[in-house]
Design the sequence.
């Protein structure tokens, strides 16, 4: 029952990070106004501080990355952009299966994010922007699932598989994993299978934590 409030990634990211409604701004080559990109907001790095937390911004996209990197850096995030992930992945297996037209495929991108988070000694927050669930809906050639005539559904099957692998990687640190809150959402949507205009604006919003799951089980047992 959640709907997009903005027609582009910049607006959704701005609202999620700052809690403020983004002003209408559309200038070729820019995603934020000068006031927005240089503004000081009560984002998580400032709300939680940096003494006991490390705050990350991970971005798989390579288009318009300068605007997003600058904005998130100004909000206090430790920024990892496409170039940083490309360096890590190029020095790995030696193949280029991680590359996509938009940047980095979700699978290798999220596994790299999991490695960085797993090596973090402090508590952390992480704002992760993936790319595969975006047109042109391209997945690695090695991905075994192919839904004929529905590249978007194939892409979302790949996204689901990538999130599963990401969560399993973080589970290797069970005590930390048990105390982590995961929020999965979208910046905006596009065409859908149905023609309903509302469906063109509907986005997911998922809150998950093992702790929340245990509390829900206890609540249901009390209701029985």
Sequence:
């Amino acid at each position: 029952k959640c709907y997009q409030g903005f027609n582009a990634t910049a607006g959704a990211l701005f609202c999620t990070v700052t809690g403020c409604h983004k002003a209408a701004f559309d200038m070729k080559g820019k995603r934020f106004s000068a006031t927005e990109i240089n503004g000081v907001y009560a984002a998580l790095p400032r709300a939680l501080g940096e003494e006991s937390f490390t705050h990350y911004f991970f971005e798989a996209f390579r288009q318009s990355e300068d605007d997003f990197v600058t904005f998130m850096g100004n909000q206090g995030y430790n920024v990892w952009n496409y170039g940083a992930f490309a360096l890590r992945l190029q020095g790995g297996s030696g193949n280029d299966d991680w590359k996509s037209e938009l940047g980095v495929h979700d699978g290798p991108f999220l596994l790299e994010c999991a490695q960085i988070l797993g090596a973090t000694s402090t508590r952390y927050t992480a704002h992760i922007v993936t790319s595969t669930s975006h047109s042109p809906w391209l997945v690695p050639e090695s991905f075994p699932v192919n839904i004929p005539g529905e590249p978007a559904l194939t892409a979302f099957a790949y996204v689901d598989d990538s999130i599963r692998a990401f969560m399993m990687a973080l589970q290797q640190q069970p005590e930390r994993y048990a105390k982590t809150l995961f929020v999965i959402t979208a910046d905006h949507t596009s065409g859908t299978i149905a023609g309903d205009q509302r469906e063109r604006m509907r986005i997911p919003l998922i809150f998950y934590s093992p702790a929340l799951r245990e509390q829900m089980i206890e609540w249901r047992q009390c209701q029985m």
